[in-house]
Specification:
Three copies of one chain form a homotrimer.
Chain A lengths: L2 H20 L10 E11 H5 L7 E3 L2 H14 L5 E16 L2 E14 L5 E15 L2 E11 L13
Parallel strand pairs in A: 1-6
Antiparallel strand pairs in A: 1-2, 3-4, 4-5, 5-6
């Protein structure tokens, strides 16, 4: 595939990914990852200081499924809407079979009776496998700028 | 056309569409639609609850033109700037001659003497006809997350 | 190059450009411009009223380099993160050797201990040269909607 085709495919994967999250179809979220994929939400501060502490960490699709069950069972939320925008999708290079793709994202949150606000902004650093079953994340790092998170960050981004 | 070409054409239509609105060229706004097109701004809450009540509704290009005249004649606004960002443009399938295209948008508003704020965020669900005269909207649903709208929502989005 | 290829190349240039700024690699910022390039940050109000007064103005790459040195030496900032999103990239036409490309941007700012906010939103109006050494800006106008800027605007956008 050319660089252009890779970017196109990566954009399509990201488009479907954020639509899944925006529509709160969390049960489908693990399907965007390969079996042994790593998913990590980590602050930009921690990345820059080499602190490994992550806000959310999964190192397999099964762990992601457990996470979704936990969110559904344990969490009581006031109703809110999330809306992701992703831009500046860049294919940066390769790591083994995977392509490294960076992009910028912002998640907007609308709580009942409140204005729409920035919930979280940052960068996706993804390793994507372009296989027979369509592209999958082999690793997805969500590196967020936002330090003060309005409400708890318990959902995937 | 391939899926990739369809997305490219849809993106170009959306780019021109939001530029028209950002530059307040409302008189050109109906030209983005086919004759009998439907334009609807409706809250996500109402869509989810199957309430048909729309915030703005037009079912022909003539009705859109009337709307623009009404906005120009009747409305007194304090000066403000709008800025649309659109991302995650996805060709979802076909409905008759039209292609269904979903995308996420945010409109930022700058009022005199105030910081730039999120005015409205949500999803475009479009049916687009790719005809000889270039692509046109046959239907455009603006499904907005934002419940508290800072100022009245009287302009198209 | 076809219009589609031009847009693709312009998007890649913009992607690299904003990543450079987001990662605070200011020393590399002038490299995105040709030797005699013009860089201007100007308010939308001033553009509309034909006031030439710019918030930042450089008319050569050397002047940009001086600017970066000045920022590094003179400025004391509280730590903050910036995050650019760019959308609606449109190739509008040609001006001599350059292609005119417009896009919408938003810059989100995260200050220590604060929520992420809109720092600046507006439009890029670029003249891009597609030469042997890769695409470069021959002119970049940053026309911003945002009037109330939270903190001083001393960095390029």
């Amino acid at each position: 595939m050319t660089n252009r085709e890779l970017r196109f495919e990566a954009e399509e994967l990201l488009d479907r990914y954020v639509q899944c999250l925006d529509e709160d179809r969390l049960e489908e979220w693990p399907d965007f990852f390969s079996d042994k994929a790593v998913y990590k939400i980590i602050s930009r501060v921690n990345v820059e200081r080499n602190h490994p502490l992550a806000t959310m960490f999964c190192d397999s699709r099964d762990m992601m499924k457990d996470r979704v069950v936990a969110i559904r069972n344990a969490s009581v939320f006031s109703q809110r809407y999330l809306r992701h925008l992703v831009s500046n999708v860049r294919v940066m290079g390769q790591d083994g079979d995977a392509h490294i793709v960076k992009s910028n994202y912002v998640v907007l949150q609308t709580m009942q009776g409140e204005e729409t606000k920035v919930f979280n902004a940052g960068q996706y650093v993804d390793k994507i496998i372009f296989g027979d079953g369509g592209p999958k994340f082999q690793e997805k790092l969500v590196i967020y700028d936002t330090i003060q998170i309005p409400g708890l960050l318990v959902v995937p981004i």
